[in-house]
């Protein structure tokens, strides 16, 4: 990302939802009286969301996170106002003031406030770059975002399609960046396995960038078993959302078009593999 891309990411996020963060007037939730444990994962839009456990040291640093979390309309509105101010300041290149607003928004439990605060530490926007802090903030953002979706779903009489879309895109955006942290080794040891895990969750929630990155991992066999058919299916999903990659015409060839992400044609054995299959698996014939 370049220095100005933080606002671009926000605009993309807002465009997907068809709106910017809005003020709310819902009743005060009883979230703090009836906490939900997401340790084993929760289901949202058919996808089980569970965060990979951090080391004990990192876990201690995010302990008590739920106490920051609130769906009080006054708190939510304030956190959204701070988030909008932070975006505006960033676009005017007032980076140090911008990061303060993101921090205040995140401290009130706004997952996007935590997310943009994390991006500031990752890229050194208004603060000294710190991959460790960035990873912690992203983890917190994901945790809060998932909790908000669960509470919202539980407390509403009807969890409508717009609410589902709103939460799916927000969580997908955050999980994608968690995947990037593991893919690049930013703030943690590089792990393609963990990167693939988070990209898969985000891809299932509809994030096109995650679909492209997961496809790339399948294409190279990094963190997952190499599978060109699944890669093609994921690339097509991203392209359908306007995130197609230049030169990716091969994904529309007949042999890949007839396969979905979960299906692939049986692999034909070459004459060399067929010959090898006839060779005894042990060396008894040499004794």
Topology record:
Layout: H1 5-17, E1 42-44, E2 47-49, H2 56-61, H3 73-91, H4 95-107, H5 111-123, H6 131-155, H7 161-184, H8 192-204, H9 208-220, H10 228-240, H11 254-257, H12 271-277
Antiparallel strand pairs: 1-2
Helix pairs in contact: 3-4, 4-5, 5-6, 6-7, 7-8, 8-9, 9-10
Number of strands: 2
Percent of residues in helices? 55-70%
Total domain count: 2
Percent in strands: under 5%
Q: Given the C-alpha coordinates, what overall shape results?
A: globular
Distinct helical segment count: 12
Average pLDDT, to the nearest integer? 76
Strand order, largest beta sheet: 1-2
Structural class designation: mainly alpha
Organism: Rozella allomycis (strain CSF55)
Protein name: HCP-like protein
InterPro entries: Mitotic_Regulator (IPR052945), Sel1-like (IPR006597), TPR-like_helical_dom_sf (IPR011990)
GO cellular component, one term: cell division site
Describe this structure in words.
- With 287 residues, this protein is an all-alpha fold.
- The protein has two domains: 5-202, no CATH class; 207-277, no CATH class.
- The protein is built from twelve helices and two strands, in the order H-E-E-H-H-H-H-H-H-H-H-H-H-H.
- The protein has helices at 5-17, 56-61, 73-91, 95-107, 111-123, 131-155, 161-184, 192-204, 208-220, 228-240, 254-257, 271-277, and strands at 42-44, 47-49.
- A two-stranded antiparallel sheet has the order 1-2.
- The termini are far apart.
- Residues 1-6, 16-38 and 268-287 have low confidence and may be disordered.
- This is HCP-like protein.
- Pfam families: Sel1.
């Amino acid at each position: 990302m370049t220095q100005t891309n933080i606002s671009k990411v926000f605009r993309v996020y807002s465009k997907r939802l068809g709106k910017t963060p809005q003020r709310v007037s819902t009743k005060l939730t009883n979230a703090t009286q009836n906490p939900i444990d997401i340790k084993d994962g929760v289901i949202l839009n058919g996808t089980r969301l569970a965060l990979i456990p951090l080391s004990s040291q990192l876990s201690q640093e995010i302990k008590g996170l739920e106490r920051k979390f609130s769906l009080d309309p006054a708190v939510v509105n304030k956190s959204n106002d701070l988030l909008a101010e932070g975006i505006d300041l960033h676009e005017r290149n007032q980076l140090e003031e911008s990061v303060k607003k993101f921090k205040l928004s995140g401290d009130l439990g706004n997952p996007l406030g935590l997310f943009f605060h994390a991006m500031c530490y990752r890229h050194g926007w208004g603060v000294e770059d710190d991959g460790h802090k960035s990873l912690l903030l992203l983890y917190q953002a994901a945790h809060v975002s998932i909790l908000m979706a669960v509470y919202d779903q539980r407390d509403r009489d009807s969890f409508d399609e717009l609410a589902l879309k709103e939460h799916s895109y927000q969580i997908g955006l955050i999980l994608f960046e968690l995947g990037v942290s593991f893919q690049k080794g930013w703030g943690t040891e590089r792990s393609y396995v963990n990167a693939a895990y988070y990209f898969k969750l985000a891809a299932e929630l509809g994030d096109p960038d995650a679909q492209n990155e997961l496809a790339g991992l399948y294409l190279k066999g990094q963190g997952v078993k190499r599978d060109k058919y699944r890669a093609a299916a994921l690339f097509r999903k991203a392209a359908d959302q306007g995130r197609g990659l230049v030169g990716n015409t091969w994904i529309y060839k007949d042999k890949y078009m007839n396969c979905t992400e979960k299906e692939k044609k049986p692999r034909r054995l070459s004459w060399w593999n067929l010959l090898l299959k006839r060779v005894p698996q042990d060396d008894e014939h040499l004794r």
